[in-house]
Specification:
CATH topology: Aminopeptidase
GO molecular function: acyltransferase activity
Shape: globular
Organism: Halobacillus seohaensis
Oligomer: single chain
Strand content: 25-35%
CATH superfamily: Gcn5-related N-acetyltransferase (GNAT)
Low-confidence stretches: none
Helix content: 25-40%
Protein name: Lysine N-acyltransferase MbtK
InterPro entries: Acyl_CoA_acyltransferase, Acyltransferase_MbtK/IucB-like, GNAT_dom
CATH architecture: 3-Layer(aba) Sandwich
Structural class: alpha+beta
Mean pLDDT: 94
Distance between the termini: 19 Å
Radius of gyration: 15 Å
Pathway: Siderophore biosynthesis
Strand order of the largest sheet: 1-2-3-4-5-7-6
Number of helices: 6
Number of domains: 1
């Protein structure tokens, strides 16, 4: 892919864009955040104040097109679904702009975010738990190097717990 990938942290000023994306037909069945604007604003304020994760917007060639959540497993609802370690991280993502769907961008973006998360020296595992119905994203996670482990019950969905180990990721993509 001959495009520049970049990420920047979300600010509250991004609420209208994120609200629009959360109401897209390809997003809301998996994110369940198609709330009225004032409720979504409250949700975003809480999310921005939560110290266990960081929210990002993803860009291709300077155009904003995706949303990301990088989080610490410790302190998250997912923590007790497997034997987690102190520095395990997780990732959530969505492509918000319809014009970017179906063009193969999820994979290089995910690979870039995982590489970014592995910059924390003590992180040896990144996890994901995509909605078990989201076959397209499960395929992208597998392509990136995630291994499916088991279905897990979460408050808002049944997810597929997947692991990406640092050694395997680096061997696959950067050696």
């Amino acid at each position: 892919m001959k495009k520049t990938i970049a990420f920047r942290q979300v600010t509250y000023e991004d609420h209208e864009l994120l609200h629009k994306w959360m109401n897209e037909e390809h997003v809301h069945p998996f994110w369940n955040l198609n709330l009225p604007l004032h409720k979504f604003q409250e949700h975003l304020k809480e999310a921005l104040a939560d110290q266990h994760h960081t929210l990002y917007l993803g860009y291709l060639d300077g155009q904003v097109m995706s949303y990301w959540e990088a989080y610490w497993v410790k302190g998250d609802v997912i923590e007790h679904t497997y034997s987690s370690s102190a520095y395990d991280q997780g990732v959530h993502l969505l492509l918000g702009e319809k014009a970017f769907l179906g063009k193969g961008y999820s994979f290089p973006l995910l690979r870039a975010m995982i590489r970014f998360q592995f910059q924390i020296a003590n992180t040896t595992k990144i996890i994901a738990e995509p909605d078990i119905r989201n076959e397209k994203m499960i395929h992208v996670f597998k392509k990136c190097g995630f291994v499916p482990l088991k279905p897990i019950s979460l408050p808002e969905k049944t997810g597929l717990l997947m692991f990406c180990e640092r050694n395997e990721f680096e061997k696959r993509w950067f050696r």
